[in-house]
Amino acid sequence: MKGSTLGVGRLRAASAGNGVLGVLVLLLIGLTLGMGQLEPLFRALFPDLGTPLYSRDSFLNLMLAHIGLVLVSSLISVTIGIAAGLFVTRPVGREFEPMVSSLAAIGQTFPPAAVLAIAVPLAGFGFAPTIIALSLYGLLPVIQNTIAGLGTVPQTTLEAARGNGMSRWQILRRVELPLAMRVIIAGIRVSVIINIGTATIGSTVGAKSLGTPLIAGLVGNNLAYVIQGALLVGLLAIVTDLLFERLERRYSFGG
Amino acid sequence: MASTRSRQWVGNRVLMTLLVAAVASVGLLPFASLSPNRLASGQSVMLWEASASWQLAAFALIGLALLLAALARPLSVRTALWLSLIATLPLLALDFQALGGYAHRALVDASPAARVSQGATFWILLFVCVLIAIDALQRLRLGMAGRALYGMAALAVIAACFCGDLLAPLSIMREFANQRDNFVDQLIRHLLLVGGALVPALLVGLPLGLMANRRARLRNGLFSVLNVFQTLPSIAVFGLLIAPLSALGRAVPWLGDLGVSGIGVAPAIIALVLYSLLPIVRNTYSGLAGVSSGALEAARGMGMTPRQILWQVEIPLALPVILSGLRIVTVQAIGLVVVAALIGAGGFGAFIFQGLGQYAIDLVLLGAIPTIVLAVIADFALQILVSLSRPAGTR
């Protein structure tokens, strides 16, 4: 009985979640394309400002640049992170596992903004340091969760797979990875959400992103710019997080 | 086959890999750079050009000791690990010695504007020392006390390098000398902002966590609201708080007199509290939820009142988990305060963004490195606190 009411509740929550997600996605697209239409509103809210709408670049361009930064760096982090996680959980690389784990744990105590700042002397200003900092930082939660996820696969399951005559590669692809996928995706989610935030600060080292109007507004004392940038980047983060939540749910076997 | 044969020779492949990486870096990447002034880019100097001959000999000796520790024979596993652990301390000192010594010699007959900065190999050697130590400490299974002791020895070595004027001619230390008073101010400001956010976050978060534990209905809603704040980029939250707070500061004059305004400390503290709530509430909740029903029943059976059970059974048993939440939040807050410098709250972030604006890399590092050190030290200290809070026998 309890199970079934819980199931209904979860179903209801999921469909309510769909509604919220739908509204937020529409809001995100609408604001990205139609921020210009809101100019009268910003003019009314901030009568003292000469230009109440950021116009040095279109919000669509800024949004695409931001998503591009996060996408490129996340692809790098996910590829290297999962590969490293796999390496240290195979017999060849098991010796490296304790060190890689503690490195990932210590690295995550480094503030993302400080890592971004340190990338500048290495790579100059612009796109490159931001990509380096985002990929390096995003790597850590992916490695950590890949190791943790593969570690949750029960030994008996692995033995059963071996007993069925599956090869190592088959076990990895058809048993270990599917069972670890939910935890790995949770790591990717953390990494992407942190990177959306850090890409915003990337505009201080010269990378174009939704942080560009935000920082320009903070520096030039233009609150309207700040709100325009902050709204869009906040929405982007929430929508991305909700999408990952759904993805994670898809991989949770039997709750 | 080749790999099994090499495994017979190499006893510690992690140490061997680190050693190869260090040697490759020494051979390929600059150890220091010499530039005509603060803003110009410098000319690369390799380790063997920068070191005095006794330093080169010492580098080689430590390298051989580490190689010996990485081989399967003749040393026993434990002896090899102790050797690698001990050898990292002089390597650490030598890394700083070589850099400082080079800076002294290079600047003797250079113009006063000339600067010496650390290069990639300096950082890589430092990093390799840290990794060798981490690996050896883990393999030796030293407890918290052993790790803390070794950590303090390493810190003492580094502190000794900073005492005296060994590193004074380095570019970043000259920047530090210029900013000395300012540096102390920003350090205090950084710590005050972190403390100023953590105290209210604990005052609100601990009762909320208790409530989440007692009332299941409240839990989901509370967690999803708090999760939204964790998701939002910090700079967006800082930005969105500016307008309402400056309106509030203007509308309620006494609040304005207290310093509530759109920029500065008020929005920084509010945003930090909002970010800190989720980990505190979540860990308080799960710490309390993890208390075994057996312990609770035993307490009830002994005739303890609910209040006594909370204070004498539940909270002590949940303490390690609650403190882990505090650890997450403290490290997170130290990092978020960096970003708060963009809304004029001060702290080490002020150096970072000022440096980025002027393309003064030393100023950037003067903000970034202390922030990282602060975060790592806070993490380690709270980790010790967490392990001390575990009931005896489960540590």
Automatic annotation (TrEMBL), chain B:
Q: Does the keyword Transmembrane helix apply?
A: yes
Q: Which residues form the ABC transmembrane type-1 domain?
A: 187-382
Which PROSITE patterns does the UniProt entry name for this protein? Answer: ABC_TM1
Listed under GO biological process in this entry are: glycine betaine transport; transmembrane transport
Q: Quote any Pfam family the record assigns.
A: BPD_transp_1
Q: Where is this gene product found?
A: Cell membrane
Name the InterPro entries for this protein. ABC_transp_perm/SBD, MetI-like, MetI-like_sf
Q: How does it sit in the membrane?
A: Multi-pass membrane protein
- What residue intervals traverse the membrane? 12-32, 52-72, 79-100, 120-137, 149-168, 188-210, 222-246, 258-278, 309-328, 334-356, 363-386
Q: Which Gene3D superfamilies match?
A: MetI-like
Keyword annotations from UniProtKB, A to Z: Membrane, Transmembrane, Transmembrane helix, Transport
Q: GO cellular-component terms in the record?
A: plasma membrane
Family of the protein in this entry: Belongs to the binding-protein-dependent transport system permease family.
**What's the name of the protein?**
ABC transporter permease
Specify the taxonomic lineage: Bacteria, Pseudomonadati, Pseudomonadota, Gammaproteobacteria, Oceanospirillales
